[in-house]
Specification:
mainly beta, about 45% strand, elongated, disordered N terminus
């Protein structure tokens, strides 16, 4: 994936942005709202991770998960 500098705040382009996805870790389904590159503090210093934000249909609050956990939902 390429980082999209124009989006700012560490946001990245992703082919599933705006599409329905499932978080394989929790089973949450919803729309992929953002993919963000962020620094997470650890005892050895910051570690860079990519976070996906999924907005479930049942609530307006985005739920974070690892980008590697998202999978596309089939559209019918």
């Amino acid at each position: 994936m390429k980082k999209t500098a124009g989006l700012g705040l560490g946001h990245e382009d992703h082919p599933l942005l705006g599409r329905r996805v499932r978080d394989a870790a929790s089973g949450t389904e919803g729309e992929l709202m953002a993919v963000v590159l962020e620094a997470v503090s650890t005892h050895t210093g910051p570690r860079w991770t990519r976070r996906a934000d999924i907005r479930p249909e049942t609530c307006g609050r985005d739920l974070p998960t690892a980008v590697s956990n998202i999978e596309p939902l089939e559209t019918s």
